[in-house]
């Protein structure tokens, strides 16, 4: 079997990222062997370990999202070795589909932090990705910020395959540790009343303790706001910190409530920060008159 298009595209992106000398020949040989049916359990694990040394660990060159079986997969924040490990797994999935579940589990369980991250980023590129929910749930429980971000941010796997309880826990953990909520794929599609309640409880707890909360928490709550929560969000349009005002504006745009429109217009007239003004402008486009 020939190397899958996604693996070839990843190799091209890696080549544009200035990999280590001779690394590309090694990677192309490995993906060709795996796609051709080479025993993945013998070949993929050593290649996973060697990827960083062979190719380097610098940032991956920018490019369009990759076409996954279910959703496009953005590669923002990926490293060269992340991309190489994803290419290896995609090739192994094509060449030895019957071994894929055990291979993914073994590579994740036996890998170091970077190798685990490579597995998690590759999950939405693999056929039948729902089979790997156990790996994703484990990554969501980790205390390693890079591994958690690889699952929670710019990764469509959780929104596609997590149940509501697991999804809500993942979102609220992201809020608690300060992961960028706006980069969570499917946040609007997976909105639900219980998650909105959890988000508002979190806001109240942080306010009571005198602590900041992530400005984009309003994106989590906005789809299921009651009148009190909407009023609280509107109040944050006048916060002293621009980032907080911008988060409130984005949340109000997502909420799409006509009640918020006059407050957005009033704030736009006096807002000194250009980024916040842009957020208010977008919110007004999304808010009915």
Give an overview of the whole structure.
The chain folds into two domains: 5-176, no CATH class; 193-286, Leucine-rich Repeat Variant. A hairpin with a 4-residue loop joins strand 1 (66-67) and strand 2 (72-73). It is built from 16 helices and two strands. It has 289 residues and is mainly alpha-helical. A two-stranded antiparallel ribbon has the order 1-2.
Chain-wise SSE layout:
Blueprint (H helix, E strand, L loop, with lengths): L4 H11 L7 H13 L4 H16 L10 E2 L4 E2 L6 H16 L4 H11 L2 H10 L10 H8 L4 H8 L4 H5 L2 H14 L15 H16 L8 H5 L5 H9 L6 H14 L5 H10 L3 H13 L3
Antiparallel strand pairs: 1-2
Helix pairs in contact: 1-2, 1-4, 2-3, 2-4, 3-4, 3-5, 4-6, 5-6, 6-8, 10-11, 13-14, 14-16, 15-16
Any descriptors?
2 domains; Leucine-rich Repeat Variant; 289 residues; 16 helices
Query: Helicity, in percent?
Result: 55-70%
- Report the principal-axis shape: elongated
Point out poorly predicted stretches. none
- Quick one: how many beta strands? 2
Radius of gyration (CA) equals 22 Å
Would you tell me the overall average pLDDT?
Answer: 95
- Helix-strand sequence: HHHEEHHHHHHHHHHHHH
Structural class: mainly alpha
End-to-end span in angstroms?
A: 57 Å
Count of distinct structural domains: 2
What kind of assembly state do the chains in view correspond to? single chain
Percent strand equals under 5%
* Spatial arrangement of strands, main beta sheet: 1-2
The description of the largest β-sheet is:
2 strands, antiparallel
How would you summarize this macromolecular structure in one to three sentences?
With 289 residues, the chain is mostly helical.
């Amino acid at each position: 079997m020939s190397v899958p298009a996604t693996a070839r595209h990843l190799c091209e992106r890696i080549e544009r990222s200035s990999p280590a000398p001779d690394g590309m020949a090694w990677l192309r040989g490995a993906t060709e062997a795996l796609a051709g049916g080479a025993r993945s359990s013998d070949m993929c694990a050593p290649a996973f370990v060697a990827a960083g040394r062979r190719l380097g660990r610098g940032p991956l060159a920018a490019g369009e999202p990759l076409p996954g079986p279910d959703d496009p997969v953005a590669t923002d924040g990926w490293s060269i070795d992340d991309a190489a490990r994803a290419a290896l797994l995609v090739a192994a999935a094509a060449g030895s589909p019957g071994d894929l579940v055990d291979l993914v589990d073994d590579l994740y369980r036996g890998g170091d932090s970077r190798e685990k991250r490579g597995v998690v980023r590759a999950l939405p590129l693999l056929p039948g990705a729902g089979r790997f929910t156990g790996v994703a749930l484990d990554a969501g429980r980790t205390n390693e910020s890079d591994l958690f971000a690889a699952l929670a941010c710019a990764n469509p796997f959780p929104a596609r395959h997590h149940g509501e309880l697991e999804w809500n826990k993942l979102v609220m953990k992201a809020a608690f540790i300060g992961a960028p909520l706006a980069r969570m794929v499917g946040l609007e599609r997976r909105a639900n009343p219980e998650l909105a309640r959890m988000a508002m409880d979190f806001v109240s707890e942080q306010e009571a303790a005198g602590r900041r909360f992530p400005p984009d928490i309003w994106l989590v709550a906005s789809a299921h706001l009651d009148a009190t929560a909407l009023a609280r969000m509107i109040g944050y349009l006048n916060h002293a910190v621009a980032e907080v005002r911008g988060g409130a504006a984005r949340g109000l745009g997502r909420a799409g409530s006509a009640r918020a429109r006059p407050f957005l217009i009033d704030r736009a007239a006096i807002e000194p920060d250009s980024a916040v003004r842009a957020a208010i402008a977008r919110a007004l486009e999304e808010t009915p008159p």
